[in-house]
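Notebook, student rotation project (T.W.).
Task set for the rotation: take a protein with a known small-molecule partner, predict the structure of the complex, and write up what can be learned from the model alone. Partner molecule chosen: zinc ion. Sequence and SMILES entered below by T.W., checked by me.
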Amino acid sequence: MTIQADEARSGAAELPDPSSDPSADAATRLSATRGGEEQGLAERVALALFILVPFTALLAAVPVAWGWGLGWTDVAVTVAMYFLTCHGITVGYHRYFTHGAFKAPRPMRLALAVVGSLAVEGPLVRWVADHRKHHRFSDKDGDPHSPWRYGESVPALIKGLWWAHMGWMFDEEQTSQLKYAPDLVGDPTLRRISRLFWLWTTISLLLPALVGGLVSLSWEGALSAFFWGSLVRVALLHHVTWSINSICHAVGRRPFRSRDRSGNVWWLAVLSCGESWHNLHHADPTAARHGVLRGQIDSSARLIRWFELAGWVRDVRWPDAERIAARRAA
Ligand SMILES: [Zn+2]
Ligand SMILES: [Zn+2]
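Predicted structure of the complex:
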């Protein structure tokens, strides 16, 4: 099926929008939440359950396993692998490859592609194509993962959050890589790195086990490091990344003007390596820093700054005060 057919397929006819009144639509579009600044109780409860249940299950497993299936080596390996691969996605896949927020010499370009691949979020070219399409249509027909796909009622939003979080990945329709990522498709080495995704996945899953086994000199150590540092780490990073698509397009503050419903969600800032300042990102997609306001933690921007000081990247698009002010919501 062609892209045009794909866009037609997700058209309004098939996806009824209860708020077909154009003035109501314009009013809600100014806010990140349904019905303006106020968020309904049912909507809040649904969202809280959606977020809290998996996290509670994960946290509950920690004290149960501590001492026999979880130790400090596992914690160190898990945290190190989590933030290495998280920044591989945010600095590499997202800010560099998707949006060109800075320029990188060849070795850095390839290193960013490989470290991003270790996050097990799919091959580079596919990730970038999907994400550019998301920006092109953000929260409109054609967006691969908008939580508003099914409409604005609470049941529609719950269904939409599921779609934006994970469901969209099971859609048989794939974003055209030639149309959305011709710059990457045209680079033979990046094509090869993309095609070797199985290899980066294997390395990403085996490395924690290897470290855990060598530190403890035991199979048990290898197994518990594999469980936490590979399985739990990949699952957690997946959910945090997907939360940018679901949660950060459903709730959050909107201090900046964007043509979609992206919001800034402070409590995801550390785990998402600064990507949950998503309202600013949609207002200014090529900026290297997303957390531009006072106190907004953005570890990816910090890392890019260190790379710049080390001379590893150049021409970084730092948002200056004037640029930020111009994008402020009225
Ligand atoms: Zn977005
Ligand atoms: Zn983006």
